[in-house]
Design goal:
Shape: elongated
Helix content: 10-25%
Number of helices: 3
Radius of gyration: 27 Å
Strand content: 35-45%
Length: 257
């Protein structure tokens, strides 16, 4: 089975001729025909915001320790490969420690505020921190979930609990502009670029009936598995009527927008 590179098509505006569908499939303007019988996999997805990770750290000070004792906290910011930026390609590790200036054994109420202040004063930190004296806990919150991919926290003396997991942003404006940029050779022309607004992606994997016979074997045919992504402007006034309705008529819909 030979497989082609995925095709990505941007649709900024819709008309009555953009999609024409019936029970057998659809005909999409500028692309062609997609028959329901040829679709082996499909899905659609619409924009959703990111969710910041929240982790709590219960500070525990050992009953017996060598003085001066330093309470440790290590935070590892995970790489965010979706950004395609050099500074986010690799994860970064930050260590924060607190020891009593007088050389005595620290307490949770002295270590916690000091660690939180150090994290919040660090311009390269991927989290913010708050300390709750009533529960001896540090709360670490992802600073900007649209720019990072979550973090891990470690300590040799304490309990780390993941309260809210990081959730990646879906189909953000930055992602769309990176997917359809102004390319070399199109300057001075009228390229098809994402407009302001939200886009839903409709993905289809298509395996059509074999129609290309292999000349090296009498009874062999070459079949192509095609993959296509349609990025459709859901803010267009005709999105529901001229796209979703036609897709549903062909049994290719059920996208929650």
């Amino acid at each position: 089975m030979l497989r082609r590179q995925p095709e990505r098509i941007l649709i900024n505006s819709l008309s009555a001729n953009t999609v024409i569908g019936d029970a057998s499939g659809v005909v999409i303007e500028g692309y062609g025909e997609i028959l329901l019988a040829d679709v082996i996999n499909s899905y659609c997805d619409c924009p959703s915001p990111c969710v910041a990770q929240i982790t709590t750290v219960l500070i525990t000070i050992p009953d017996s320790c060598e003085c001066p004792y330093e309470w440790p906290l290590t935070i590892r910011c995970k790489p965010r490969l979706q950004s395609y930026e050099v500074q986010q390609t690799f994860g970064s590790t930050k260590y924060y420690g607190y020891s009593d200036p007088a050389g005595g054994v620290p307490t949770a109420d002295t270590a916690g505020p000091a660690i939180a202040a150090a994290i919040n004063a660090d311009p390269t930190a991927c989290v913010t921190a708050t300390y709750d004296a009533g529960t001896d806990t540090l709360t670490l919150t992802e600073k900007d979930c649209s720019q990072t991919a979550g973090f891990d926290a470690f300590t040799e003396s304490g309990t780390v609990t993941l309260d809210t997991a990081h959730v990646e942003e879906v189909l953000s404006a930055d992602y769309m502009h990176k997917l359809f940029p102004i390319k070399v050779g199109v300057f001075g022309s009228n390229p098809n670029l994402p407009s302001c607004g939200d886009y839903c992606v409709w993905h289809f994997v298509i395996r059509k009936s074999c129609d290309a016979q292999d000349i090296s074997a009498a009874n062999h045919y070459n079949c192509y598995e095609q993959e296509v992504y349609f990025y459709v402007n859901k803010n267009d006034a005709n999105y529901e009527a001229y796209w979703v309705t036609e897709m549903n008529a062909a049994g290719l819909g059920n996208c929650v927008s």
